[in-house]
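If you are new to this repository, start here. Below is one unmodified record pulled from the training split, so you can see the exact layout before writing a loader.
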Amino acid sequence: MTGVLGQAFFQHALLAGTAIALASGLVGYFLVLRAQTFTGDALSHVAFTGAMAALAGGYDLRLGLFAATIGVALLLGLLGRRGRPDDVAIGALFSWILGLGVFFLTLYTTTRSATGQGNAGISVLFGSIYGLDGARTLTAVLIAAGISAAVLVLARPLLFATLDEAVARARGVRTGALGLAFLALVGACAAEATQAVGSLLLLGLLAAPAGAALRLTDRPYRALALSAALAVLDVWGGLLLSAAAPQLPPSFAVMAIATLCYTATYAVRRTPTAAAADPA
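And here is the target side for that same chain:
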């Protein structure tokens, strides 16, 4: 295990994974608080479809990931009300998007498998964090840092609009535009997290740390910080577990740790406080 920790691929995975986890924890907190987890689930399928479309067309899969997830996230917000996706709209697009992904996967495997690139579809589904080189790691860190900074800038008005939308709107908060901006961040975060844990498992990285944080504290800003911290610890623990037991894929190990942490919160008794609405 000591030898693995000193390898460049593991250090790249740890650096990129930390940044991606931080962004996922921050975005995931508001995703769960705003009851938009179904949106995150839909975007996991969109990430798969977008990546397969890009690969089938001979483009970098990251182009398809970001274009599809951000574009569909904004579309869902526009189809909903005041930047909040409607479950009916999500459901209507859900199966169609997944079916489109299967089409692009078939197209990709039949046209690219002969060139030795047929395994890229597996990496999209289950992640390829150990396959990041220095340049891709730097890109992942910069994008995740941008997402994290944007969430922190929007945190106060977004929290206000989430807890009492009518009052926030009366106080001049543009809740519709704010909702669309948040959905764009969710789409970007989903695309980035796909590289770490894959499209099939990215919802767990978005939802599990946030769900655990909300069970542990009712103070919004404390829960936001705790969600980010738990997401980072989940990735660290998953990577270390995968290094100690190489037969475990890193994405599975990360999700195993995240699930264990969330389950452990059921053993913790949280006493509601009068300061539940206090963002401090």
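Two things worth knowing about this chain: Residues 52 and 104 are 5 Å apart (CA to CA). Residues 2-267 form a domain with the ABC transporter involved in vitamin B12 uptake, BtuC fold (CATH 1.10.3470.10).
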